[in-house]
Amino acid sequence: MLLYKIEDFNPNYHQEAFDGEDIKGMDVYAGNSDDKIGSIDTALVDETGRFRYFVVETGSWIFGKKVLLPIALCRVDFKARRVFATGLRSKDRVENLPRYEHAMALDRDYEERVRGIYRTPTVEASVPVEASLPLDAPDRTYQPAEKLPVASKSAPVSEPQPVSPPVVKADYDRDSYTYDREPELYQIDEGENQQLKLYEERLVANKIRRKSGEVAIGKRVETEQARVQVPVEKERVIIERVTPENAGVPVASDAAFQQQEIARLETYEETADIKKQAFVREEVQIRKEVEQDTVEATETLRREELDVKTEGNADARRL
Hints:
The protein has 5 helices and 7 strands; from the N terminus they run E-H-H-E-E-E-E-E-E-H-H-H.
């Protein structure tokens, strides 16, 4: 079965498998100690997407050497961003492991050399291999992050119990070998360390600005009939004949009967000069005002609570 680097198999692995966390770059410590031995370079998955190895850059122990760490021989503390390599307790084991290079092709024989080193008993063979990070599950590929148990800083470390030394696999067949044959290297007992996430719903209120309408303001021309009265004056000549007081009194003959004696008067009259002219009647000011209102909404929220059931003499305590 072929192996792939996690970033090549799925570029979005940190979102789907680790709940947004990136396993690459996490510090690696020997066993459960504070002895830093390097960092995670990448992870290798098989064709089904199940995690099989971490690639550990052993910078602090052996500079520049990368080795494979079977996924079941470590536990991950996401809060502290630490990986505890319970399968790499001694520097001798790191020195004996074959070197890993990104450009190399991993075949079954190379993997068997790696497994042979981890099967070999060491001075720590009397303590159990601790595993707290199930990165694969038998019923699905690419197990989501909520199923991954995360180690807690305050979680007490169990006391090591004597166990029998591991048995070297003598019936290796490169054509028929499957990872399920060695669950101590590639599969983790989820019953030893599990994590449940309790969820609750909350109301999240946001405001969306949308167009509710439009006001168009323009002008139109209306017509009407208007009347105006303008008083005008017109001159006229009044000719009135009267008898003078000295009527009958003789006058000089040379003053009478004069020829071409004409009296001239100019008369004037007014005419109406009516025309249309535009004037400003009123001004219209346009503005917007913001009115605030409160919108209330009622929803039914759900929240998960822990339901603990015990049988027999089992002791369960909430911390």
